[in-house]
Every structure is written in structure tokens, then in C-alpha cells.
Amino acid sequence: MKERAVALLRRFYGYSEFRPLQLDIITTAACGRDCVVLMPTGGGKSICYQIPALLTDGGVTVVVSPLIALMKDQVTALTANGIPAAAVNSMQTEAENHNILQQLFTGRIKILYISPERLLMEIDRWSRDLPISLIAIDEAHCISQWGHDFRPDYTRLSRLKELYPHVPVMALTATADRLTRDDIARQLCLRDPATFIGSFDRPNISLRVMNNPGKSQRLRYIAMLIDRYRHDSGIVYCISRKSAESMNNELLGMGYKSVVYHAGLSIEERNRAQDRFINGDVQVVCATVAFGMGIDKSNIRWVVHNNMPRNIESYYQEIGRAGRDGVKAEATMFYSYADIITLQGFVDESGQQAINSEKLKRMQEYAESSLCRRRILLSYFNETMDHDCGNCDVCLNPPERMDGTVIALKAMSAIIRTEGKVGFTMLIDILRGASKRDLIDRGYDRIKTYGAGRDLSYPEWNSYLSQLIQLGLIDIAYNENNHLKVTAYGAIVLRDRTPVTLAQYKEPERRKTARGRKEVIPEPELKPAERLLAELKEVRLKLARKEQVPPYIVFSDKTLLEMVRVEPVDMDSFARVEGVGEKKTVKYWKPFVTAIRKFKGIAESLGTGLSHEETLLLLNAGYDVNGIAETKGIKPRTVYSHIVSLIRQDKLTDFSAIITREQYMRVMTVARENPDGMWDILNSEMPDGLPSVALAISDFLLRQKEK
Fold it and tell me: Is residue 166 part of a domain?
């Protein structure tokens, strides 16, 4: 089974080995055992149910997903690799869905994606007539009330085990703690499921948190990312529709290609925005958390959270949309206490206040931490890392410590003198001696600490007050209009003048730009490898536009980087590049190899017999004549002519998949008894071109006998 699985991986996906746990999961499912699979976004979950579908001779693999974007994305990628797949969902007409279901029952579809709602409508009829080899439940955390995205429709999926008791069920999710994992197995009625937990470490993603840098600095930072990855894509996640709209308008005003995505838009508007982003027509999408589920776009190089997410599960899933190809990516979170106030309101309105409040607290602890951020994330998912990652802001720029005792005393004294009736902004205004009307009307300009912190800027005070909250000296009274209070511990520090150590404030990176205009940055001088990569991306883009698919469906950035490393100059070497399957070898080798040969200064022609070599490659991969014709876009007769040439050149010696013994003997008999009329007789009995193959085989056998 392992050999077959690796052969299928190489043939259809172009990879020579599986990632950790994938093969174990595949063999477990293929042996008929239920399993729960926990792998991070971009960790390779889809391979775990797609390969078992190819390993089985009969039956269909049904993939249950609530994400139409995932269905479309996966089906496009599978068919591009030569795997018969389809989806049934509400975005298609009933006629389209009916046609797909007809193909399903005739055995022409190997993998079917379907929503839980539609599956439950169809399943009673299917249980009588449709052989199913595997049921995969994607986004399985949706079935658990302990999960971060509970969906009541998912709970009805327990019926699957009633109707298909002997069919293995694979439950997959990117984010689930132990409580949620156990609940998934219970809700789906899984029988002695094997549990697989992949590593959550995504070392290629650099992690960073910035404490309320202000609107202008946020925009400068996002603009810097867009410019740094000008040929790739990024996502800005926002807490509300209004803030997503605002961010999009700001970026458009700066001259960047941006779109907005949120649930308030029509389906057509959302689909148009998503398609423009997937196809690379825009550089960035400004979106609420409704965006991105199921998108497999491989060249998202950065994700920015304009606001703190409500829990670590959501945060980890969203940053996981960057760097899915394993290439360097960046994830930055902007964080402020205003976010916590807003999110706490969401928690209070939820039906599970206790658990959601605890999840929000853990998210806040991550944002405020001065420890390695990756270790905190991995610890949340019960994974231990015994060293700092070296690729987060805390590791790369350890905070410089300073004596913050005076700062702490000034802040706490001001809170006490205002009787704990001011919030974050008002306290900073008092300390900095602002002349705002509401401050003066309330008499705060007459307290002793008014203006005591003029020596510090607003961002500095914002940073230091946040740290005082993290240290437990100050607390936010959410039930009193978010006023600041001195804690019991803070009162002791204030009374005893206990030393307080704070992290030194650092000025964020700045870019000098004209207001409202994008800074014009010249294209950097590229190294040879970078120039070749840019040319291969251009080839990919032209092919993608011609085929009307996203560029990453043609090849991922990681595969293009492998081409840059290997520099294949013929079909054979191109076929050996990691990420290049057999169908894509035949389909794409010429334009990419031509570009590489031109880059290397190789002037010789690619030759004229290569179409025959493509046919040989597909024959060796197990394609039949009709499959080769379909893949290459030629007629079966032409394929037979290639086969004749290959036999005459002694390049093809196994004919069992091309012609039966009975067909061969029939051709030989007619050729002997009626040589003048043989073509008229045989062309009515067998495919046009097959008699020529039989004659070529006869000549081959004579040559072998003479040798």
C-alpha cells in the first residue's frame, strides 16, 4: 500500500514523499478505520483523504465541507492534476448539480465535495444505490459546541454512521483543543477512532504584535508589506465591516490594488472580490473574518490583523493562510484595549460566556507577552517547544528593559486623583497636559498630576500603560465604561514605591511619503535566480489567464522556486521537479523549459519527436489512449500513430494496455487473408489506428526474433 500511495503522490501531485503523518493517516483510512485528524492550515490535510480515494478501485470519497470556496478550489486543483472530482453546492444551478450527481452514480467521479445540508438531503437515496469508500468531514470543529465555529447543521452528520456503519469516517480540523477533539469523535459516533495530531509549528511564518501604533503608522506598515511583496498577495483582517471598508478606501487612495470582502456585500460582490484576489488581479483584500476559509492560494505572503481576534484558534487559522507553500511569510497583529472592549461585548452576547471569555483572555495574554510567541501558540495546542523560535518579534528584537517606577507612580496617582473615572485616552491626555474641552470641564486640569508626563509622547504612554495593565498594577473596569482602576497590588507598589521594570518603547518603522499618495519605490536590482523566478511567474500568469484559473493552480511558488534551483532544460528533467505531476508535465513543460533555456542562453530547438515522448510518459503512468488524447487535446488516432513510432524505435515493449491479444490476432488474420481490403474491414471493428499498432507489434516481434 505504501508503494502504491507514493506512486500516486508522484503521478498526480508531483511529490516524491509524504509529509509527517500523512502516510499513516492514509493507510489507516484505507484499512477501514475511523480517524480524527488535527493538522494546521496548510499542513496537507486534503492529501489524507484524496490519496485513499485513488487507492480504492470502487466507490466514491465524499468530502463534507461548509466552504464553497474550498470546494471550488479543490475541484479545480484536482481536475488540473487529472483526478476526476466535482462539487455539489448552492452556487451552482440545480441542472448543474443534477448532472454531477448523474456522473457520480455512473462512476465517473472519484471525489465529491458537498455541503452538510445538501448531503443530508441526498443521503437516504445514496445509502441504497451509491457505493462510498470514505467519508471525510472537513472543518470538523463545527460539530462541537466547544469549537470556535459551531454550526448546528453539523450535529446531524451522526446519521452517516447509521446509514454507512462500515464506511470509514475521517474528521479533519485545523484548530481543536483536547475537549473539542473528543467531542468531535462522540458527536460523529466514530468507532475506536485513531487520532493524529500534526505539528502546529509553521516556522516559515514570522510573528509580530504591535501595540496600537495608530492609524497612520498602521497604514505605513501595511504599505511597506505590499511594496515588499509587490508580486504576491496579502490579507488585512478587520473587526467590523465598517473598518474593512475604511481600510480598503485608504489603500485605494494610496494607489494600491485592493478589494473589500464582508458579509454585508451581495454574493456577487463577494465572489467578484474573492476571484480578483485569487487570480492575482489585486494585491490585498481587506476583510472581516468571513473571508479566506477554504482558499488554497499559495502565494499569500503576509497577513495583518488590524484588530485582535477573539481567540487563538481563529488567529492561528487566519495567519495560516499565509505561506501555505512553505516559503517565507509574515503575520502581524495590531492590538489595542479598544479591541478587548469590543470583543468582550461579543463574548457577553454569546451563549457560552465562560469559555469564550477564557479564550479571549488567552488571546490577550499572547498579544501582551514578552516571551517567544511561537512557544505560546504551540503550548496552547498542547505542543511543547524547548527553544525560542528566532522568527518572532520577541526573539528578533528582545525588549530593552528600563526603570519604569516613576512612570508607574505618575499613572496610578492620576487614576486615583480622578477617582477611577477615566479611560485610557483621557488618562493619557491628563498626563500629557492636553487642553481638551471635556478634560477641562471635568476639572482634571487642576489635579496635581495634570501635565506630569509631558516628556512622553502619546504612543509611549499608550505602550507603558498597556504594560502596567499586563503587570497587574492597573485594571480595566469593563462594567464601568471601561474606566481604569488601580489594583490592590498597584496600591502596594504606589505606597511602598516598589521598583517597576518596563520594556523600553521603540518607535515603529517609518516611511516618508506624500500624504494620500503611494511612495514610488524603484524595482530592486534582482539577482539571477530572482530574475528567473520573475520570468517563470510571468509564464505561469499567461497560462493561468489563458485557462481562466488562479496562477497557483498551474504551479505554486514553491514549485517555481524548485524549477529555479533545478533549471530543467528538457521534459525528463522537468518531470522530476518536486510539485510537477505527470499530467502537468505534458501540459506545461514546453513553455517553462523554453523560458529556462532562453534564460540560460541555450539556442537549440526543443526537437520534433517530443510529442511522442509525452505519449510514452503518459502510457507509462497508466493512461489509456482516450485519456492521453484528452490530456494532450489530440485525437485518439494521433495517439495510435505516436505508439506506432515508439514501437518502431523500440521505446515501447509492453502492449497489454493498448491492444488485446484477440484484437492483435484478428488484425493478423485479416492481413493474411484479405490484405487489400483489411483497412475497410478492420476500421468498422476497432478504433481507427489500432490495426497499424498491431502491424508495428508484428514487425517488433520479428526484429526480436532475428536478434
Answer: yes
